Amino acid sequence: MGSASSSSCTASGAPNSSSTAARILIVGLLVSRSSAPIVRPRRALHCGRVSADVLIGVYPPAELSVLHARRTTPAWPLAEAGLTLTHLGRGAVWLALRALGLRGGSRLAMPAYHCGSEVEAAHLAGLEVEFYRVDDQLRVDEDDLARVAAVTDAVYLISCFGFPTVARPSGSRVIEDAAHGLFSLHAGTPVGAGAEAAVFCPRKSLGTPDGGAVVVPAGRQIDVSEGRAPVRPMARSVASLVAARAAIARRRQLRARAARAIARMSRGDAAAREGTLTETVIGEWNLEVGDMEAAARAPSRLTAAVLGRVDGAAIRARRRRNYLRLRDELAELTLEPFRDLAEGTCPLYFPLLAGDRSRAIAALLARGVRPLEIWPVPHPILDRRRFPEPERARLSLLALPVHQALEDWHMDIVLAAVKDVLAKPSA
Question: What pTM value is reported for the model?
């Protein structure tokens, strides 16, 4: 629940060593809000076959300047009394199941189109998972959902890519997975606000080194895991996020150095260039209960500090602006539900259909855009022959960046790269 990698909740294409990224950490922080004039990118690096002097990822990079912002009352759900922060998103799912009293033998309705780590949490908790249908446009089959909901103890809904999902089935207890939908609204109400438990993944939306979240109604208790995320992995994550921020800086020399560093160090990017991305980064299906308990620990102190200072309305506005910029020219290349952006929706990224996704990702990466595969492999307990409808999406969808750190000139680069790549028969 950033890199040219799978958008699995557990996968990461971040550099597997932070030594080079750490060298530019201080410089990256100093220029993260630089007023230097924009120097347009050129293809000049040829390092690891990356040929652009910019690297625009799907997830936001570090914006540590937010730590200097005055603490205010953050947008829902970050100030809720029933909020519990976790190290990872799957840890938030684990706590949500616990909060609803779901245990071995309980039955949970889950969508056939999913990330996989949420299903792994339910599977490890001993739940019997009953899948409901999602069509080839990724719309929930509401009749099938109602049928499955009637014979299960709770329903798990997913608001894909930040877009609100269907209404809850009548009489069902609901866990809403809004890992993609932090700050999204539906008819003026925050996504997840009406559920018995709602799950979020601030790491994906805010450029923090870790972070999941679960919200339950005030007064309901959650037994949280003891401890906090380990320091060393968090330090590596921060270095990678700062490198990613430097790679979109206005100063060409800085972003070129950062792009070279990431090209050398990222396992996911290397796999993307070789066409082996899915096999390299997808899926952790052999976890144990201890892994879920570790994921449910408290997040790093840096993550906790950032969450109290972000401006949800400003983030939503910038993401919407960037999304609409792509939508206006690429609408025919996305699925029908994502061609309109309803008032209040805060999209995580722009889902794009590519006939040959592997080649498209490699070509975009060479042009300085670092896309994601979107959920290419479901959890292995799903019988894909019984639920074939999402297969096209699994094979073809990639994510394009629209996050709040991107300015208009970044979106110019993204749009030009997509048009260039999709105009070529090989991509």
Answer: 0.89
